[in-house]
Amino acid sequence: MNNSRSTNVAIIGGGYAGMAAAVELVARNIPVTVFESAQQLGGRARGVSYNDTQLDNGQHLLLGCYRETLRLIELVGGDIGQDFLTLPLQLDLHNHFSLRAPRLPAPLHLLIALMSAQGLSWGERIKAARFMLTLRNANFRLDRLPSLAGGITSDLAGVVGQPSRMASSSIRGARGEGSSDITVSALLAQHGQDADLTLKLWEPLCIAALNTPISKASAQVLLNVLRDALNRERADSDMLLPRIDFTALFPQRAANYVEMHGGKVHSSCGVEAIVPKEDGIELVTASGTETFSHVICAASPVVAARLLRPIAALADTVAQIDSLEQQPIYTLYLQYPAHVTLPHPMLGLHQRYSQWLFDKGQIAAQHGLLASVISAEGIHQELSQDELAQKVIAELREEFGIAEQPHWLKVIAEKRATFCCSPNLQRPAQQTALPRLLLAGDYTAGEYPATLEGAVMSGIKCTSAILESL
Ligand SMILES: Cc1cc2nc3c(=O)[nH]c(=O)nc-3n(C[C@H](O)[C@H](O)[C@H](O)COP(=O)(O)OP(=O)(O)OC[C@H]3O[C@@H](n4cnc5c(N)ncnc54)[C@H](O)[C@@H]3O)c2cc1C
């Protein structure tokens, strides 16, 4: 069992985490079998067909700093230049705020962007730029920030930015992000980022990156994303908008790659039980049982907890998964006449239900198709889907003069889109108490919030752990 010839790995779940692990393993000649319960691969980032139109279960955005995801997309045959519309960092809140990064080296591009941002007073621009420099000097580590010397953990949430917008508002490292983590609200208050600056800049950034309101969000995890997006190469802050759907972008190509390298991918084949045995780990599916040397459980947290619960040795892991709160993401797709466009491929709205709008005509030649994204918990959840759609249609009319009614619309409410990324979160490690049973998924231990890159990195960590054990 301890050499690569007797190694055969099962992966439960064909989302981004599971397919990343599968690709990395077959690329090293390790036999792999992927079990995916759904008909289609992709999980929480999957293509959805509606009214003969290709949609996704939610409009996603990648950042240039998602290096592992982009590397794997290319490894399995993707072409970043063709698959994405790439925009330099820009944040527009229609008629209220505009920040655009010039094509200059980091972090100069960001400082210039902040100092020239429209919709902020000079004082606010200076405060924002000074804050960024302070973060940079502290290497984006909370415990190195001057105001946090000595490990202040008090929570000043509520001082800034309440209520939020429209909202009422390492492989072994189970310990989230250090003991001095605080909320984003608290961090902003400590660094003089006033309410206007917070509403226009930091809160939209935080919700987009962490899918968690600033009053609940981990400051350290936000800093991890800012560090990687804003402080390395300029291209790391690029925003990549996919021109093809999220199943086609990576998981389907990854499945083709796995099969070409001798692996197997079984769709519509959910795993019903994981049974550790002396000579391996047995998986039970509707078609029977099969034994593997290693299993990577890359299902969503709720399913992972259900599958692991009967295994007594994993009680602590299951307790950690059970304690994760979830946050929703709503996406409304509206098909208008083909001539309807927005001023930019992607732009935000200030103090509206729609947080971000995407013009799929400009992004993917789906003319007249607009997507409105509402991330994290908020008062939109109190409305029916019809009521919410009417609010969004009214916003589009008031903000952009779109007088027509959409031909059709589709609301996709992902109630458990991501875990709530709160301070000092105890995320389960990839390695479990059973050395040959590993966990992958965006919710497992890592520096990133629930993102495609976090999911992919977790799959790669599982692969490395298996390879090291052989
Ligand atoms: C609406 C929305 C918008 C988002 N926007 C962004 C964004 O802009 N940028 C970004 O980086 N991230 C975004 N995310 C987050 C990102 O989609 C997730 O972090 C990522 O897809 C999680 O991948 P995963 O592989 O960890 O889990 P999942 O995608 O949940 O994959 C788990 C897989 O396991 C399968 N499965 C479940 N049960 C079983 C079983 N019993 N047997 C076999 N298979 C099983 C599921 O069908 C699924 O395919 C968004 C998420 C949502 C929902």
What does this structure look like?
The chain has 470 residues and is α+β, with helices and mostly antiparallel strands. It has helices spanning 16-26, 67-75, 80-83, 108-115, 122-137, 184-190, 195-210, 219-230, 246-249, 251-260, 301-308, 315-322, 360-364, 385-400, 452-469, and strands at residues 9-12, 32-35, 47-50, 53-56, 62-63, 84-87, 90-93, 97-100, 239-242, 264-266, 271-277, 280-285, 288-292, 294-297, 326-335, 346-348, 356-359, 369-375, 408-419, 437-439. The protein is globular, with a radius of gyration of 22 Å. It starts with 8 loop residues before the first strand and ends with a helix. Mean pLDDT is 92; it is low at 148-178.
Task: Summarize the model shown.
The protein is an alpha+beta fold.
- The helical percent reads 25-40%
Distance between the termini: 9 Å
Mean pLDDT: 92
Total DSSP helices: 15
The strand order across the widest sheet is: 10-2-1-14-20
| Number of DSSP E strands | 20
Q: Tell me about the biggest sheet?
A: 5 strands, parallel
Spatial shape = globular
| SS-based class | alpha+beta
Bound molecules: flavin-adenine dinucleotide
Features:
binds flavin-adenine dinucleotide, 32% helix, 5-stranded parallel β-sheet, alpha+beta, single chain
List the helices and strands and how they pair.
Blueprint: E1 9-12, H1 16-26, E2 32-35, E3 47-50, E4 53-56, E5 62-63, H2 67-75, H3 80-83, E6 84-87, E7 90-93, E8 97-100, H4 108-115, H5 122-137, H6 184-190, H7 195-210, H8 219-230, E9 239-242, H9 246-249, H10 251-260, E10 264-266, E11 271-277, E12 280-285, E13 288-292, E14 294-297, H11 301-308, H12 315-322, E15 326-335, E16 346-348, E17 356-359, H13 360-364, E18 369-375, H14 385-400, E19 408-419, E20 437-439, H15 452-469
Parallel strand pairs: 1-2, 1-14, 2-10, 14-20
Antiparallel strand pairs: 3-4, 5-9, 6-9, 7-8, 11-12, 12-13, 15-18, 15-19, 16-17, 17-18
